Amino acid sequence: MTIKSLHTNDALCTGCHICQLACAMCHFRETNPKKGALRITGKFPSPGHFHIDVCNQCGDCAAACPTEAIYKDNGVYKVDEEKCDYCLLCVDACPYGVIFTHPSMNVIFKCDYCGLCVHYCPTGAIFE
Amino acid sequence: MNGYGGSVLRVNLSTGKIKKQTLDPWMAESYFGGRGFASYILYKEVPAGIDPLGEENKLLLISGPLTGMFVPGGGKATFASKSPATGSYGDSNVGGMIGAEMKYAGYDLIIFEGNAPKPTYLFIDDDKVELRSAEPQWGKGAITCEKELKEELGEEFQIATIGPAGERLINIACIHHDWGRQAGRTGVGAVMGSKNLKAIAVHGTKSVPVADLKSYRKAYNKMFKFLKESPARKVWVDYGTPGVVEWVNEIGAFPTRNFTSGFLKSWEKVSGPTMKKEIVITDKCCFACPTACGKYSHVKTESRDFYVEGPEYETIAMIGSNNGVDDLRDIAYANYLCDEMGLDTISAGNIAAFAIECFNKGIITEEDTGGVSLKFGDPESVFHLIELMGKQEKIGELLSHGVKYAAEQLGQGSEKFACHVKGLEISGYEFHRAPAMALAYMTADIGAHHNRAWAITYDIEVGRDKIEGKAERVILLQHIRPLFDIMGACRLQWVEVGLPLETYPPVFNAITGFDLSWEDMLKTAERVWNLTRCFWVREVPDFGRPWDMPPARFLEDPVTEGPTKGAKMSPEEVEQLLDNYYRLRGWNSNGIPTEDKLKELGLEWVVEGLKKRGRF
Fold it and tell me: Do A16 and B286 touch (CB under 8 A)?
């Protein structure tokens, strides 16, 4: 499954983190929401809602990458792990904070529009 | 170890020493996790007869094999200790995120031993584990403390904390988490307070290994697919637990004015749809749950402006209807007061109603309340009582010990309407005419709590006056429902949305690599139930049948109004329920597990100690 676009509606998010579980399972075959390439943040105790950050494939990460490790493929920015030297300039460049790192990895990871978050989201808070 | 974080963290608060140990695979296979581990560790490690608020008691925080996994509702954690409220086995589970987070940090079980010399909190960031000063947070409200720690450590940290009630070692103190979820029952908050442990902050990043990835994915996909297509899920997401108000009131089981009735005329004012329309601002769920039953509310009136998670059904029933209070904004405010203070809303509501009845009968007076006149239906009376209990002022000091203790001290017949079993306040189901629900409360292994066997639906299904078959059903539920707490998953997907129980063994086995049938898993639940019973036998010298009796209110005072008007339980009915229950459980007529039963369940190691105590 691949998607053409990715949108969010904070008002529908209930903070279950199933999207992150699905993302990590798809890309790493692991049970670990910390390896999901999107972020859910609770805004509590006030104003009392969740916020979803997802990639919209704007390409700012690719523009910032000095090693051309982030490349465009059919409208989606992907990571060439061989080329990534973990300088994290892409992390700083991303306007939504959705270029991710993980202590077990020495390369960055990001959303590739696989669409599993959309498929698994129980409320329609993440949609195409 | 597949399905587990793999480590046990042993934190000695007296010495400040922290030990990381490998999870015992035998314990995992025999007790799975959650309250299974709780029953085993407390029995093995907590010496008999110790003071629950003393240095020798232990506080446990436990996840389960399904916690943190890609399984619907895999977000449950259990707190456990010897209970100061009942003097025996105590545990309370909590949703939210902390069970999953501790597992990602690599820990299935955290054992707190000893008492810290100064206010302390436990900091966990994967392998980095430290005891840190909680002096700046001491004295602060639970929600305030969570907010401060998140601001300091980062939003990704999951926090469990006590409020001032826990610091004061109040028997009805809870442990707060995730902006409004609580391990509410059995006084686990007081045990945490006795240890000078203000909070636990956890962040983890590790993956949890599974035994069979392919079967795991197949199994959880089946579960999520079922739930996605279920119409029942929509109703639960729409209204959460308050959605049951209408039904519970219709059958006359909605506790009203200290369990004198099961019917609130103005129920519509406190119903799920009313709440959704008037105060809820977002649905909020626990980890990996597609059925967001949690409701987060914002109340803004001329005099008040506050946010609170809930109120849940139990709070509406116990703080609201049971005190005759029928305005959701008032119930929400009392909920907020309890949350920040760190009080269990179930026990607080129960005791407030008891106090109001005492006031009506002249057993307590304005002198005891600081000049305030207590009335049913008056929210200010409830707010005032919560303040008095939380601060242990005036009559609040006595009440804060729990309804059993308060009645024993006040006397004058108040014992008859002190609504508890084994010292734990009865929760939100009125059972004058609901024998299965009555038996569930009478025999619940932490004291009167609905969640071990929510049997009232069975009373309605097969007939409320019927006794036959009730004990069988209660026992079955006492295995199924706690099994969810043992696995670390929420039962709601099954009990309310109808996710078939058959879907659990495949996912459980794929994750853990065990090869168990549902019947095998129920056997573990039975082992745990018998072990917690033995904890009571060990801790309470004269423990037996009288401890399973319902309060006199349910035998002597007929229901005053509503569909069950005039109903009360008969002594014969109570004895018959217990006779059937003990027989089916393989216990003797005094409710003590037999040697044969314990051996059958692999609990022979318990027998010798109990024999020494003259219990066989």
Answer: yes
pLDDT of residue B76: 98
Measure Cα distances from B331 to B242, B297, B322 in Å: 12, 12, 11
Q: Which residue of B has its CA nearest to A29?
A: B213
Dist. CA B4–CA B101, nearest whole Å: 12
- Whether A96 has its CB under 8 Å from any CB of chain B: the answer is no
Residues B561 and B416 in one domain: no
Whether B521 maps to a domain, the answer reads yes
Q: What digits encode the pLDDT tens for the residues B384-394?
A: 999 999 999 99
Pairing of strands B420-421, B305-309: unpaired
Q: For chain A, how big is the Rg over CA atoms in Å? A: 14
Q: How far is B19 from chain A (nearest CA, A)?
A: 23
For testing the chain B interface, which of A1, A16, A104 should be mutated: the one with the most B CBs within 10 Å?
A: A16
Q: Which domain holds residue B335?
A: 236-425
Q: What is the CATH number of the domain that holds B190?
A: 3.60.9.10
B179 and A45 within 8 Å at the Cβ level: the answer is: yes
- What span, in angstroms and rounded, lies between the C-alpha atoms of B406 and B62? 32
CB contact under 8 Å between B126 and A103, yes or no, is yes
Alpha-carbon distance B519 to nearest alpha carbon in chain A (angstroms):
27
B221 belongs to a structural domain: no
Phi then psi for residue A126, to 5 deg, are -115, 125
DSSP single-letter state for residue B285: -
Predicted ipTM of the assembly: 0.97
Taking alpha carbons only, the member of B421, B390, B387, B391 closest to residue B403 is: B421
**Average pLDDT, integer, range B333-349:** 98
How far is C-alpha B422 from the chain's CA centre? 15
CA distances (Å), B114 to each of B40, B163, B194, in order?
Answer: 19, 20, 9
Indicate the residue type of B94.
V
**Contacts of residue B189, Cβ cutoff 8 Å, sequence gap at least 6:** B162, B163, B165, B166, B170, B173, B174, B175, B176, B183, B342, B344
Amino acid B427 reads S
pLDDT at A1 over 70: no
Helix (H, G, I), strand (E, B) or coil at B174: coil
For chain B, positions 59-88, list CB contacts with chain A under 8 A.
68-70
Cis ω on the peptide bond leading into residue A45 (within 30° of 0)?
A: yes
